Amino acid sequence: MEPGGLRNGDRPGLPPGPGPGRQPSRTGGVLVLLAPAARFQSGRDVRKEGGRRGGRGFAACDMNPPLVEIADLGRHAGETVTLRGWLCGRRFGGGIAFLHLRDGTGVCQCVVEAAAAEAFAAAAALTLESALSVTGAARADDRAPGGYELTVRDLALIHAAPPYPIARKEHGVDFLMSHRHLWLRSRRPVAVLRVRDTLVRACRAFFEARGFTLVDTPILVPGAGEDASTLFPVEYFDRRLFLAQTGQLYLESACMALGKVYAFGPTFRAEKSKTRRHLTEFWMIEPEVAFAELDDVIELAEDLVCCVVERVLREREPELRVLGRDPERLRAVRKPFPRLTYSEAAERLRSPGLLKTLEDEFQRDRSRLAAWMAELEELERRLRGLSRPAARERIERQIAERREEIAELEQDLSNRPGHIASAQSFAWGSDLGGSDETILSRQFDRPVFVTHYPVRAKAFYMKQCAEDPRLVLNMDLLAPEGYGEIVGGSQREDNLDVLLRRMTEKGLRPEDYDWYLDLRRYGSVPHGGFGLGIERTLTWLCGLRHVRETIPFPRTRGRVYP
RNA sequence: UCCGCGGUAGCUCAAUGGUAGAGCGGGUGGCUGUUAACCACUAGGUUGCAGGUUCGAGCCCUGCCCGCGGAGCCA
């Protein structure tokens, strides 16, 4: 079990109370609504239904209340309107019911009083996530979450749900992921998906504004690639193909035709990684530009990230707050981003100054852990002295939260000495490890570029540095706060002979790439591009712990359901 | 592939080798302004699977399955 559970924390729950069939005498009206014919009718045309059944007033002047989305409710204060949606929370007093209706645009508290006898009986029988339409007077009310509420006159059940599995309390990751198809309805996943939408739109708008052409690259590709062990094999009639892990080689071809191109699509990695940063299926935005050198590629990535951050801040601040993300952290993301060469990064990792910083930090965190443990003991002691369930529950919640934080910090601390040692003994020539990236990126308040990696750590298509042939003209962009690499790119090798040599060194067969080599035969020009990982970027923007929350249906090594 | 942690009620978790429990959720009753409502009552279990040690195993041992996150690798 992962330390601690994911807090659902956003699902207005179903308090203990009446359910279907509970009070036959009171739910008589509802049973009628549940009959197939009635259900069909209300589903067919809710507006007519609401107006007709309402009788009073509307029948006389032959008007149906307008169908309104919850987000627009404020513009209809004082009017009688109809809302449709799903029941996402309910509280029930003896003679009053509070229904929280969710329609995808917002949540509205609908108040049903005993005076509206039929609607009140219907409300008594509602289960969480049932679909319904309600008609009544909209009005502003400070007591309502969202500021507006509806006094219900008519309530029509569109579909009655059986007891809903996702409760308002916290659930474990495994449970929530197994119910991802329903979990998506909760506030938190909705917020993440909205930021994702904005992120993708921002990227598209960015490239469109700069004259890029969208080019789709194939998903089924012949073996080749870089390392076949990281590709998913696919049976393709009588041969073996693979799911693409990048569209880059094809984009290089397209950029020689169109100048500036980009691809946005899924990509697949068969690495057996099981970490919070890995998915086997994820999405990438990949631009590729002709007549571009490394500096141009870096500047493009910098502009893109700034543009995306700016738009997310402009359009999705409420969602960031739902996720507990402090928008101020993102406001620091401005040009220029710091730039380090790989060699400077290596030096930095080995420096005595960094060692001291890391060790101090380690000591501080150990003290913090000790303090938390003491706090936990104190809470547990207090709990033993309490008998009233309500008071106990509050303490128990605090205990659970503390335990979660302690477990996470303990794990972090147990990794820390290894990370520090690995940074200190970092050997020039190898790629930066995840912990090295974390250590580096924590030193800045905005993303940082690391450039000019050793040739042997990088792919064959990256252009070798003219001044120092041990290096390639590449760049990685590390997100701050320890989120790690979100962009990887390079200037591409445009010299046919060098490219052939690099391929041979990497054990690749040039004949498999003949079409790619043609690009260096017919009008080869300096060019380059990069790939930006949508999910990792989103994880950083939203301040999440795990990439799997950023994609509707994550594919990880351990999970392909739902 | 390796290392570590875990699997107990629908969910989240307790339980020195000695009678399997709580909160939430479900059910029943009460309450006309609730905000994760509250109060009372109630049902709910082959402790992941298979062996073993023991008078006695949720707990100890062995093997397996599943999940989690860390390493390697990567965006």
Structure overview:
With 562 residues, this protein is of the alpha+beta class. Among the domains are: 28-159, OB fold (Dihydrolipoamide Acetyltransferase, E2P) (Beta Barrel), CATH 2.40.50.140; 186-338 and 444-550, BirA Bifunctional Protein, domain 2 (2-Layer Sandwich), CATH 3.30.930. It has 19 helices and 16 strands. It has helices at 28-34, 36-44, 46-54, 58-61, 117-124, 173-178, 180-183, 187-209, 248-258, 294-315, 317-322, 327-331, 342-350, 352-384, 389-424, 434-441, 496-505, 514-521, 534-542, and strands spanning 80-92, 96-102, 107-113, 131-140, 148-159, 213-214, 220-222, 233-236, 239-243, 260-268, 281-290, 339-341, 448-451, 474-479, 484-491, 527-533. The strands form 3 sheets. Strands 6-10-11-16-15-14-13-12 form an 8-stranded mixed β-sheet. The chain has a 5-stranded mixed β-barrel with strand order 1-2-3-5-4, surrounded by 4 helices. The chain has a 3-stranded antiparallel β-sheet with strand order 7-9-8, with no helix packed on it. The protein starts with 27 loop residues before the first helix and ends in a 20-residue tail after the last helix. It binds one RNA strand of 75 nucleotides through strand 1, strand 2, strand 3, helix 6 and helix 15.
| Number of E strands | 16
Give the amount of beta strand, in percent.
15-25%
Main sheet overview:
8 strands, mixed
Shape: globular
Low-confidence stretches: 1-62
What is the CA-CA span between the terminal residues?
20 Å
Structural class by sheet pairing and helices: alpha+beta
Question: What does the radius of gyration come to?
Answer: 29 Å
- What's the tally of helices? 19
